[in-house]
Amino acid sequence: MNPDTLHTQEPSERADLSGPVYVALINLAGRQRMLSQRVGLYLLNFHIHRQGGREIGEEDIDAFRRAASDFLSAHSTLVEGDRKRAIPPLFSESVKEILFGKAQGARHIERFISLCERYEADMIGGQTYDLAELLQAITFIKGDLLILLQAVVKALEDDYIAFNKNIDKVRENETRSVLNALEKIQKSAHMSRLVAFNAKISSIRAGEYGREFGALTDELKRISDEIGESSKLIARNLSRQAS
């Protein structure tokens, strides 16, 4: 793991957003939060083993390394995106502010990765370490770092809520536009029926000469009726979905 791989500049590239993208990012941020706390517990457990003169098991060492590596991977995906999973580079203005704004939350991430590397070498490698510094590191993980990661999750959740509200508003506007268009169609169908009715009367008055014209007016009325009924059905379905 190399802290230098962490981006401290705001990514500018954006991609089309969707509900699944937000869900994936929220899950990713939540996993990042969980992994950080797991690392803190492993560090404390390793210290207890060292104090008791017990050997640290290979499974625990591998789990610690996996947790630290997965944390870095999750952070890189959150910032840089992942084309294979259709996750775009960081687009949330709230998360950008948390990580790269005045608070410089990304520095907490860098510090955490550095701590992982340091104590992997010291504790697992059997080297000596300062207990006060270790406890300070664990306090940081369970304090400032946890607060930062919780803020990232909350920001993404708020963005998702706003996204859904905007989608609902767009759908509502689109539904309203369709209903307005259907209302105009219904009015046109009604006028067509009136024209067909008047034309039918005229064809009757014309007697033998109006028969062909009368057949056309009957067809016009039939078409107008079908258009009117179809538009009413569509309007009812849209109104039901909008309510």
Short descriptors:
single chain, about 240 residues, 2 domains, 6 helices, disordered N terminus, Methyl-accepting transducer domain-containing protein, MCPsignal_dom, transmembrane helix, transmembrane
Strand content: under 5%
Please tell me how large the radius of gyration is.
33 Å
Mean pLDDT: 80
Ends: how far apart? Answer: 52 Å
Low-pLDDT parts are: 1-15
Number of strands: 0
* Derived structural class: mainly alpha
| Biggest beta sheet summary | none
The figure for the number of domains is: 2
What string, H for helix and E for strand, traces the elements in order?
A: HHHHHH
Number of separate helices: 6
Helix content: over 70%
Oligomeric status: single chain
* Silhouette: rod-shaped
Subcellular location: Membrane
Keywords: Membrane, Transducer, Transmembrane, Transmembrane helix
Protein name: Methyl-accepting transducer domain-containing protein
Membrane topology: Multi-pass membrane protein
What does this molecule look like?
By secondary structure, the protein is mainly alpha-helical. It folds into two domains: 3-167, no CATH class; 173-242. 78% of the residues lie in helices and 0% in strands. The chain has six helices and no strands. Helix 2 packs antiparallel against helix 4 and helix 4 packs across helix 5.
Short description:
The protein is mainly alpha-helical and 243 residues long. It has two domains: 165 residues, no CATH class; 70 residues.
Secondary-structure blueprint:
Layout: H1 19-51, H2 58-80, H3 93-100, H4 106-124, H5 131-205, H6 211-242
